[in-house]
Amino acid sequence: MSRDGGVLDGFHVGWVPEGTGDAVSDFASEWEDVQFTTRVWERQTADGYRVDLRVHVLRGERLTDLDALRTFLAEYHERDLALWHLTDFPHDDGPGLLGEAQAFWLPAPGAAVNVLVDPERFDAVTLQTVARAVTPQRESERMSDTR
Asked: Are strands 87-88 and 23-31 parallel, antiparallel or unpaired?
């Protein structure tokens, strides 16, 4: 059964796919003047733990438009921009791009969301479903601020 992923730095993760691990961790970090708030879902394997799903909320002045976000994420994920195959990803909250195992979009200048799935567990349709279910936090969620 799928489940709700709770609220993460002003965004509601409205759908976590069935089969996603139950070990959930939140953490904050910063890279190149961009602040990350991250939630990770992991599952235990024979070799330890494996990440099934990650959601990053990114905040920083350099995230001015979709091209700036793409350039930043290429650097962060150590991808060659010329070889990184991305397609348009129209999210209700702003322009985005979609790759094999990640989707990202820019709800507003200075704020972005990046959703990554384990491509061995989840397909592109599941990735898009998770990403489209990440929406700005509703006022009622701000009042309770639950996960």
From this structure: unpaired
